[in-house]
Design brief:
The chain is of the alpha/beta class and 386 residues long. The chain has 16 helices and nine strands. The strands form two sheets. Strands 1-2-3-5-7-9 form a six-stranded mixed beta sheet, sandwiched between helices. Strands 4-6-8 form a three-stranded parallel beta sheet.
């Protein structure tokens, strides 16, 4: 039986250990299931409490992807099973989103260096895992995106917080278009800190075993975390490719994107982005076409979330996104989007609402209303407050 997450500990020259977690479902591009989330959460907590573990590495099996997203087939089955029963009745969805968001928040707050190796495809739930890592390392062939508009969802896993902190208004552009970023643009958007060629990854991992990792009490006035952060950074820089990164299309078109997405009304932004479908740059044209083919309700919800969370803390953002995600399982386009893309694969979703005008500011308010009975606490009430 295939184990969905592999864990190992590698001993260093000083006797300290490196914890390595490998998402082990390459046939599904390491799509994140509830079982994988729970396994990761338990092991990361165990390593956090173990003073002999200097740092943690999170990677994906195979050469194609770190993680292409969450378990959409599982969510689809749960939506079909609980159709018409309301969002709170879907026990799988509410458990999956709660556990996934808790894991993502844990990574943001992890007490030790946590390196995420973003090789190849990093999308959706994969971005959620990588986003909070202290050392976000992308491969030279990385493809990073939050393409939820194509399945009737919205950029979640804390992405509302992340997108609001990107340069200018590129975060809104990415949410509306699901545009794919190359390695260079991952840096520009603030989604990556270091890069490595995949061929150098084994040599880099070997070099980690020979560093003087710190553990136990402070050493020379420095805490072990500070020492180990610095050591890891030195090894990453020593193995970084020497050739400079050329500006990617997001950076090249950032002035135009900021100009369009800086408009006050979503309707104006949507119309101006739609006008890029015949742009000379195929990257921009593809982004506009993806938006137009995507769910208008998702566009409205992603826009509303960025407005609603602009000044909120990360834990608050996760709580707000949890409500929206859970409501999406009972209302909106998520079930239909998954059906069209992954189940029937006809790629002809019947979005409802069918137009942005129908997905009005009044319509979107339902995604901010807690769907559980009165008196029930928010499942993420304690997040960040312990």
């Amino acid at each position: 039986m295939n184990v969905p997450v592999l864990f190992e500990e590698r001993f260093t020259d000083t006797g300290m250990r490196l914890g390595v977690a490998t998402l082990n479902s390459p046939q599904t591009l390491n799509g994140l299931s509830l079982e994988m989330v729970d396994m990761l959460d338990a092991q990361l907590r165990a390593w956090a409490a173990d003073s002999s573990v200097a740092l943690v590495i999170l990677q994906g099996a195979g050469e194609k992807a770190f993680c292409a997203g969450g378990d959409l087939h599982g969510l689809y089955r749960s939506m079909r099973e609980h159709a018409g029963q309301g969002a709170w009745a879907n026990t799988h969805a509410r458990t999956f989103f709660e556990h996934e968001y808790r894991l993502d928040f844990l990574i943001h707050c992890y007490p030790k260096p946590l390196l995420c190796w973003g090789r190849g495809i990093v999308m959706g739930g994969g971005v959620g895992l990588m986003m909070g890592a202290s050392h976000r390392v992308v491969s030279s062939d990385a493809r990073v995106a939050m393409p939820e508009i194509s399945i009737g969802l919205f950029p979640d896993v804390g992405a509302s917080w992340m997108l609001n902190r990107m340069p200018g208004r590129v975060g809104l552009f990415l949410a509306l278009t699901g545009a794919h970023l190359n390695t260079s643009d991952a840096f520009f958007a603030g989604m990556a800190d270091f890069r490595l060629d995949p061929a150098d990854w084994p040599r880099f991992c070997e070099a980690l075993l020979h560093q003087p990792w710190a553990g136990g009490p402070n050493q020379g006035g420095l805490a072990p975390r500070s020492i180990n952060d610095g050591l890891l950074r030195q090894v990453l820089l020593a193995h970084e490719p020497s050739e400079p990164l050329e500006p990617g299309p997001l950076r090249q078109h950032s002035f135009l994107i900021n100009s369009i997405c800086g408009e006050m009304k979503l309707e104006t932004i949507y119309d101006e982005l739609a006008g890029l479908t015949n742009h000379d740059d195929p990257w921009l044209a593809r982004a506009a076409k993806t938006m137009l083919a995507g769910s208008p309700g998702s566009a409205r919800l992603a826009y509303a979330l960025q407005q609603h969370t602009r000044l909120r803390s990360l834990d608050d953002v996760f709580r707000i996104e949890y409500v929206a995600a859970l409501v999406c399982t009972a209302h909106g386009d998520l079930e239909e989007g998954i059906r069209a893309l992954l189940v029937d694969k006809d790629k002809t979703p019947r979005w409802n609402p069918a137009t942005l005008a129908e997905a009005s500011p009044a319509w979107v308010q339902q995604f901010f209303q807690e769907p559980w009975p009165e008196g029930v606490p928010h499942p993420l009430e304690d997040l960040g407050r312990a």
